[in-house]
Every structure is written in structure tokens, then in C-alpha cells.
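**Backbone geometry record:**
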Amino acid sequence: MHDETTTRSESSLVRALGVWGLAASIVNVTIGGGIFRLPASAASQLGGAAPLAYLVCAVAMGLIVLCFAQAGSRVALTGGPYAYVEVAFGPLPGFLAGVLLWVVGTFALAAVSTIFADSLGALIPALGGSAARVVVLLVIFAALAAVNVRGVKQGTTLNSVATVAKLLPLVLLLVVGAFAIRAPNLAWEGAPAAGDLARSSIVLIFAFAGIESALVPSGEVKNVARTIPRAIGLAMVTITTMYIGLHLVAQGVLGAALAKSGTPLADAAAVALGPWGRTLILVGAVVSMFGYVSGMTLAVPRALFALGRDGFLPRRLAAVHPRFHTPHVAIVVQSVIVLALAISGTFEQLAILANLSTLLLYAACALAAWELRRRNVQAGGIPFRVPAAGLVPFLALAVIAWLLTSIKRDEWMVVGGVIVVAVVIFYATAGARGARTAG
């Protein structure tokens, strides 16, 4: 619940993030490891018609980001979607949104870790076997957990380098690869079935997610009513253009071979640029994903720390290292959870679970946008307005519902089970949390 203490805490934050800074943050968080693998997944499901799935995701995200823009321009509190939902509907829905945010981060981190291991194996063949893959994951998470336990500064050093290493090779492939496209490889016969398109889109939307994380520091954004909508729009146009362009290059260069590729962009670079191009993309992918995994290993455990601190989970999770002053127990527990998921699951399985959680979170934010507008909640300044603002959240919900029709029963059971457990925890700890607050 946002009380007077929360308000004072928020007012002490420096509002320094502008349009370009926030847009760059969204692009950096969104363009992660997924794009290095997803063109193959989309092609295997839809063949030459795969670009349609990108367009579906772009339309879906366009509606969703309008909801984020509306909600973000009305709520200036730190927490992003968690704050939007809590302000709109109260503590329990807000808590569930926070749990979903943690679930998204956990599954997404595990999914990207699998691509990281595969890319490293492609770059260094000796690390390409299944046993070596497990060892790589063990070493990486042990090392990153140790680094992040030692301090926040050490855990964030790689981010700037990773951003440059990620974007420059992709831009190079996009520009040079366009000249190596063979037109027949882009041809496709007939329109895909709606169910196949939905299933492909539910996987592909993994590459478009990230806004929910980039908007968490809303309490540090200046002029939220103007900055958040413009930054989201600028970032989404950039991301969508790059994704569609990269897929068309990969499909146009590799043709039918794209669907079977474990490293599609690297393989396309090998054809368009030669062996050095493949190496460049693989190195960029490895550095990029290592930066992502490192950054998420820094960020995601803080959710467990907060849940322990606030009395929802054992207080041991809120322990702070006496020397390094970091949430070392939460970091270790989170790393073990993600490691287990990465070893036992495939990228597609983990990405779908992350996307299911993401879409449920997006649906909650769409409803929150409608409710905040209905109650005329304002954060200062004129809230962001779009044509048919009352209709947009329900259009977003309709698209989300269609995408969710492709989710299988066992996938629903995993995420549904997490939500049920979260509800039980919320009510089971209510007495203890209330007594602690009163004390």
C-alpha cells in the first residue's frame, strides 16, 4: 500500500530520465537474447509466412504499450506495472502483479541462459555437448552469483559493453545482409491457420517483451505524461523495424535451412559476410546474452529480497551480507532456481512460460489503464490521451485473449499454480504482516 512514507520516499528520487534516455533503456532491455534464436522458431512453425507473426506481435504490443502509456502517465510511482495495478485495484492484485513480474524475470532469464549456452557451444565446439552445456550453466551462474554477492557496482559493469556488442553486429547484418537476400526464399504459399499463427506469435512475443522492466523506474522519469508515451512509441518503432528486417535477412539468405538452424542470425551472417561474420554475430550474441544474464542476475533476486523483507516469504531471504551489503541469500536462491530451469527446460518451453506470465501481466495493466482513466487518477500534468482511449484496453485484452488460446494445459498449470500459491501466501501472511506494521 502506498502510504505517506512511500510518498516521501518517491519524492526524494531525482527525476532525470527523459524521452531519449527512457527509449534507449526500453530498446536495450527489449532487444535481448531472443532475437538471436527466434527467427528459426518462427520459420519452423510458419515457414515463409513467419513475418506475419512479427506483425501480429507488433499490433499486439502497439495496443499494449498504449495501455502502458496511459497508465504510466497517470502513476508516477516506482514499480511500473506493479504500481499501476496496485493503485488501480489494491494490495492483492498489486502483489500478484509483482509476483508475475518475478516469474517473468525468472523464466526469461532461464530461457536466455539456454541460448547463451548454445551460442557459446557454437563458438567453441568443445563446449557444445549436452554434458558440457550443463557445466557451462553451472559455472556461469556460480560465477555471476559470486560477482553479484560482492556488490552492485561489479554486477553492473558489463551492461554498457554488452549493449554496444549486441547492437552493432545486428545493424551490420541488417545492412550488409540485405544485399545477399534471394527473393525466392521470401515466397510463401497461402495464409497460415489462425491457431498456428497464434502459437508462433506467443513464442515470438518473447522478443518484444521488456517494457514492463524498463518502466519500473517511473518514479525517476521527468514529466511522465509526456515522456513515457513518447519513449514507448519511439522504442517500439525501432524494435519492430529491426526485428522484421533481421528476420527477412535471415529468411532471404538461408531459405528453408532457417527453420533448422540453432544459431540463425550467425548462420545468415556466415553466408552474407563469410566465416568472420558468423564469428562476429556469435561473439556479439554471447557477450549480449552474458550481459543480459548478468544484469538479470543482479535485478531479479531483489524481488525475492523484497518479498522476504515485506513478510511474504521467509525473512532469511531479506538477509544482507555483513561485508558486501548485498542480498546474498536471495541471489543464491534465485540463481539455483534459474539454473534448475535452464538445465531441465528448452528455450521454447521457458519462453512460452515467460510469455504467458507476461501476457497476464499485460492484461492486468490494460485493465489498470482503464480503471485509472475511469477514476481520473493523475500524477501531475495532463495524462496521455489517445483516440478511443476507453476502447484501447479492451482491444488489447482481446488480442491477448486470442494469443492465450494457443497456450497448452500443462503451461497453464505451471503459471496458474504459481498464482494460486501467491494468493495463499498473501492471506496466510496477512496477520504477521499486520502485526509487524502495527509494531
In short: The first helix runs from residue 4 to 11.
